[in-house]
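HUMAN: Mind sharing a backbone?

ASSISTANT:
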Amino acid sequence: MKTKIFNTSVGNIIRYKLYNKENVGEKDLVIIVHGFKGFMDWGFFPFAAQKIAAKGFPVLCFNFSHNGVGEDLLNFTELDKFALNSYSLEV
């Protein structure tokens, strides 16, 4: 699964994965959102995305811009961004 990048209007990076993209527009899109201290490739999130996509639904998983996980996708490498994170920033 290839990770893609979305650049926000203020220059922040949001990394995302789209499972079962062939069905986008044909069925409802399922969006999986991790918690405040989580990330898209942690715990059950990839498993859940794969299972839902296998049922025919497109699934979008993403990392918030300041969750601390950067290009590595599995480790906290952007601690400077995480230190600035807040609920209002993510909204």
The chain has three helices and four strands. The beta strands are 4-7, 13-19, 30-33, 59-62.
